[in-house]
Amino acid sequence: MTIIQALILGIVQGLTELLPVSSSAHLNVIPWILGWTENAAFVEEFKGSFDVALHFGTLIAIGIFFLKDWIKLIKAGFNKVVKKEDSVDGKIFWYLVIATIPAGILALVLDKVSDMIIRDNFKLEMALIAFALIIMGIILAIIDKKSESKYKYEEITLKQSILVGISQALAAAFPGVSRSGITMTVARALKIDRESAAKFSFLLSTPIVAAAVLVDITEFALTSVAFWIGVVASFIVGLIVVKFLMDYLKKGSFKGFAIYRILLGLIIFALIFIRK
After folding, report:
1. CA 254 and chain centroid, separation
2. Less Cβ around it within 10 Å: N or C end of the chain?
3. How many domains are contained in the chain?
4. Cα 257 to Cα 64: distance, rounded to the nearest angstrom
5. C-alpha–C-alpha distance, residues 275 and 48, integer Å
């Protein structure tokens, strides 16, 4: 892994992990387009732990951006159990915990299923990514346009939390679906407003991504300059992007992201055909 490759992938991760456009799709497609996948050493390193390391960068970005929220959530969650104090933050904290458990279990199962289907068939993987980008783009556009914004972050129910939580397991198993994309889509289908859907999606992703990082942390190339450049790049860009998205969704819609997904999917299909 060269420094330039690490920098590009870090920027790509920071740009796409937090937007509903699928970072896994971009992290698979960009190296393919640039010809890096023809290098066995690159593929081995990237598929080994570097992709998880890039998620570590955006995890820190989310953690810092929502640090005050997490402090309030954890404190309120503790008080709800120990002191029997009811609060919105205490309720949301335990909703996040409850929603994460089935999502984590389902993600492990679906990940095995995905590996069995794709195996080492790279073109099949690219085709599935393109298909997922297009289909989820169409679904996101339709649902976002037709769903009313009835519920705010503070009004999210346990049922809504579990449904949104379970949905992210599909993204963990199948590249191209997008964790933030599917959770925000399901949240909108459940009539949660856009800004609240994004915030809950980011909070919900934190424990799942943190668990993945902890599992692979012993394999991180901590002494590699390229490793740290990738992580720092994903962190800085991710912090900028999450701030942009939260501000944008106060008035904007998901339509632009949906169109981008569809166009990218069509481009990937075209490249698959051209590169026969």
Report:
1. 15
2. C
3. 1
4. 24
5. 26
Residues β-bridged to residue 192: 151
Predicted confidence at residue 20, as pLDDT, reads 95
The one-letter amino acid code at 78 reads F
Q: Please list the residues that pair with 151 across neighbouring strands.
A: 192
Q: Which of 40, 41, 6, 11 is nearest to 26 (CA)?
A: 11
Report how far residue 46's alpha carbon sits from residue 42's, in angstroms, rounded to the nearest whole number: 6
Structure tokens at 170: 């599909």
- Please tell me the predicted confidence (pLDDT) of residue 14: 96
Residues of the chain short of pLDDT 70, as ranges, are 48, 276
How far is Cα 182 from Cα 253, in angstroms, rounded to an integer? 15
- CA gyration radius, the chain: 18
Provide φ and ψ at 34, rounded to 5°: -85, 0
Query: What span, in angstroms and rounded, lies between the C-alpha atoms of 166 and 150?
Result: 21
Identify the domain containing residue 105 by its residue range: 3-274
DSSP state of 220: -
Query: Which tokens hold the place of 173?
Result: 């198993």
Question: Can you tell me the distance from the alpha carbon of 36 to that of 1, in angstroms, rounded to the nearest whole number?
Answer: 10
Other CB atoms within 10 A of residue 37 CB = 17
Q: To which residue do tokens 């346009």 refer?
A: 145
Report the C-alpha gap between 200 and 164 in whole angstroms. 9
CB neighbours of residue 33 within 10 Å: 13
